[in-house]
Amino acid sequence: MSAEHKELYSLLIPLKQERLLVPRMCVAEVITFAETQSVIGDDVPDWYLGTVEWNGRQLPVVSFDGSRADDAASKKRGRTRIVVFHAITRQLKGGYYGILTQGFPQLVRVNEDVLTLDPEWSGDDGQPVLCRVRMIHEYPLIPDVERLEEMVADVLQSAQVAPEGLQ
Question: Could you tell me the CATH number of the domain that includes residue 152?
Answer without folding.
Answer: 2.40.50.180
